[in-house]
Amino acid sequence: MTAVDPQQLRTFVTVTRLGSFSDAARELGYTQSAVSQQIAALEADLGAALLVRRPVGPTEAGRRLLEHAAPLLVRLEAARADVARLAGAASARLVLGATPLAVGAALGHALGEVRRAYPRVEPVVRVLAQDVLPAQVATGEVDLALIDGLAAPSDPLPLPDVGPLRTVAVDERPVAVALPVGHPLAGRGGLALADLSAARWLDAPDLTPPVARLRAAAGVDGFRPATRYQGTDLHGLLALVAAGHGLTLLPEPVLSGVSGVGCAPIAAPRLVHRTELVHGSLPDGPAALLARLLEQGRGGSA
Fold first, then answer.
1. pTM: predicted TM-score of the whole model, two decimal places
2. For residue 190, what is the enclosing H or E element?
């Protein structure tokens, strides 16, 4: 068996994602015949049928290949981007990726200093979910990222390995459970997360730790979502908390003064809401300056 052709692998992933040879051909800029030939060549090389043709979908072997394909393609793009950064000249671009809760006053102050140093630069801030940002940094879609999440005080965030990236903690906040005002636990201190496993929870993976992460942190089953919240609007999430649709875990400072929402700090296990700066090699320019300012200031979400 020869080495897998990355282009064939990319075509296979695209066909599977779109569920169509013709749609994949349009997206990739090929003819449908070329897409079919690439899939056939990949199947011949691997000695297994990867796709069912009608309707289009992965076979068992195809599903297994998909598990390998996504990280392989990310690492290939990451290698290309990393070499390009090292070989490139100073960059005037500044594209920052950030999870919703990582955007705050400290970032605003740092961006102000960058704009004073580079007055012609127009910074771009892309607010995205945590699970996509490391790959976007590695492949150069964003220059650097601020990513927040739940962690033990001495542990880094559990980010996927997508390439040789630098991660630096720039902020840590205490964690509290958000609940409606009038809830029996509102205002109490020192709660054990495990004691809340049977409560109604909001599952908002783009904003808060997913319920699977809560189970792992508490070491118990439970934490069944009563309502799933898809989006990055914190105000909308807190409105659901206030209306009694479920609890959620958030950094304690964001809950201060929110109408209809109370909070109770989590004492066990010891957890913090950490924000980390993530970036690869950065040539001289506004992105490198922003990274230095954030690392020195240690206040990514202040």
1. 0.74
2. none
